């Protein structure tokens, strides 16, 4: 949350204008206080349940400093690639708190994860299960697995971020799950320890989570009857956050109470994989105005951040609140905020109400912590923006801006 003092916006006592002056724009800015607060909210909300492990979903924002902050307050991690595993090794994350998700784990990803000793793999197909068994056998290890079921639940969110529908590529059809567990249970080098589902992202209703959990619990009981004892329930991530001022996402407490109600009699460890709801509102993108223009009836503010810095508006038509960091009185009118990239879709905000601003004035784009910098690209050969964290009343650079020479580093000029 930003505060306002003497007409200037502040994040944890630091002026956004000063940050823009010191580090240049565009830049990403995170609040350590809010990361810790969001995590502790989850932790406290689930404290009534005996065993809960929060596995922060690394893909939401994977800067090693952010990962280290979560590690230091007891978080585990949910990863989806070798690169993310490498980040966790770098910060010496506890392997027994790491789960590996994703539909396309490569042999190398499986080998390295087994070597590191992760808690379990969330398996998404029979093919993958057989592959994990084969690789574990080669390494003389047993791989703990959980099966990601596709519960066919509509999470009532954006179709691109719905992952538990019949039509999606994710998970194993719930009706097949019993058979797959039985198969896994007979495998020499695989040990089924968990049940997993992740139904989507930016979810505002608790009932889809509960409907999904009900299906998992029914499966759990069927497995028990067959002598397959599961000890982990991984219910994924997906809890929504506030983007619009009018958004009212469920609180972590409400979510927890409903989940605990279902889980309390099962003697299992609950695993959560929140991403967006831990980092989304802790991050901001600062950008400066380069030019103003009017085309026909539309007023544009052309800024120095583009879809290469923040892809969500172009990719999902997502809304991010945008405002000026130094408040100006007077009439407001509507502008489209667009970036420098040569694409019509390079839009950060449509019809944003702003006062009269001029070149070099700074805007803040809210709720940019999740799926922000991690989705940044070098399109148009633009450097990725630096990342800064506010911690202990000061600001620290946690990722340098790309240097242009780096952008050509891997290219080979054949002369
Ligand atoms: C992306 C993802 C998450 C995190 O989702 P959020 O909506 O950011 O909480 C958790 N689990 C899996 C398997 C994912 O793919």
What would you say about this model in short?
This protein has twelve helices and 21 strands. The protein is of the alpha/beta class and 415 residues long. The protein folds into two domains: 3-29 and 281-407, Lyase, Ornithine Decarboxylase, Chain A, domain 1; 32-278, TIM Barrel.
Outline the structure in words.
The chain is α/β, with parallel strands linked by helices. The chain has 2 domains: 3-29 and 281-407, Beta Barrel (Lyase, Ornithine Decarboxylase, Chain A, domain 1); 32-278, Alpha-Beta Barrel (TIM Barrel). The chain has helices at residues 16-23, 32-45, 64-72, 82-90, 107-116, 126-138, 174-186, 207-225, 252-263, 276-279, 312-316, 404-407; strands at 2-5, 8-11, 14-15, 27-31, 52-57, 76-79, 98-100, 120-123, 143-150, 172-173, 190-196, 232-234, 269-272, 283-295, 298-303, 322-324, 332-338, 347-355, 362-365, 387-391, 394-399. The strands form 3 sheets. Strands 4, 14, 15, 16, 17, 18, 19, 20 and 21 form a 9-stranded mixed β-sheet that branches. Helix 9 links the parallel strand 12 (232-234) and strand 13. The longest helix has 19 residues, at 207-225. The site of pyridoxal-5'-phosphate has 16 residues, from helix 10.
